[in-house]
Design goal:
It holds the Pfam family TetR_N. Keywords: DNA-binding, Transcription, Transcription regulation. The protein has 9 helices and no strands. By secondary structure, the protein is mainly α.
């Protein structure tokens, strides 16, 4: 007899092809990711409890523990998956257009109520312990690698000097917006976002090795 996965809610669903294998339904995984972020925003990472995440997602604990053994494992997958896809890197054909598009998209992300709660807590948790060090390092490197393509294209088009300090330029791309939206918790107007984009452009054009 085939063993049913606890992800399944109805006995009327078709039987699986592989006997004894647990089917991890993508919709359940997505619900658990959302539940994690909701709990995290409310309680902070240190107070996260796997049982409460499962309850918020409306699934059994077995469905949760089948995927991740600890909250750290869950947090790593959910944050990495979201962070590396949440703001696609544009290709408008110009550095000016790319930077403005990135800043506008990033500003929308930073307005989200969950992001405004979770991002500061991520960095606070890093200061308290090393539990999330590898996650933050991996996500940061991944996002910077994506954004570095914008600089590479601009150099190839002759819009930026070949001796630009790329690491500092990447810092300048996001730092002013992050400081205003997350550190200062400001609700930025459209005009302010555009001014930040112009500041980022000016900074990027004036950093060199």
């Amino acid at each position: 007899m085939e063993r049913k996965s606890s992800d399944e809610k109805s006995s009327n669903r078709p039987s699986r092809k592989v006997a004894g294998a647990a089917v991890l339904q993508p919709s359940v995984t997505a619900s658990l990711h959302r539940a994690l972020f909701e709990e995290w925003a409310e309680t902070g990472y240190a107070s996260l409890r796997m049982e409460r995440i499962a309850a918020r997602a409306g699934v059994g604990k077995a469905a949760l523990y089948r995927r991740w053994k600890t909250k750290r494992d869950l947090a790593y997958e959910a944050v990495e998956t979201t962070a590396l896809t949440i703001t696609p890197i544009p290709d408008t054909g110009t550095l000016d257009g790319d930077v403005h598009a990135i800043i506008r998209a990033f500003a929308i992300v930073l307005r989200h109520r969950l992001v405004r709660c979770i991002l500061p807590d991520l960095h606070a948790e890093r200061a308290r312990s090393d539990a999330l060090d590898a996650l933050l390092d991996k996500v940061t490197k991944g996002r910077r690698a994506q954004a570095a393509v914008v600089l590479k294209r601009a150099i190839e088009r002759g819009e930026l000097s070949t001796d630009i300090d790329r690491q500092l330029a990447l810092d300048m791309l996001v730092a002013p917006l992050y400081w205003s939206a997350i550190v200062q918790q400001r609700h930025l107007s459209t005009a302010e976002i555009e001014r930040i984009a112009e500041l980022a452009l000016l900074s990027i054009r004036n950093v060199s090795c």
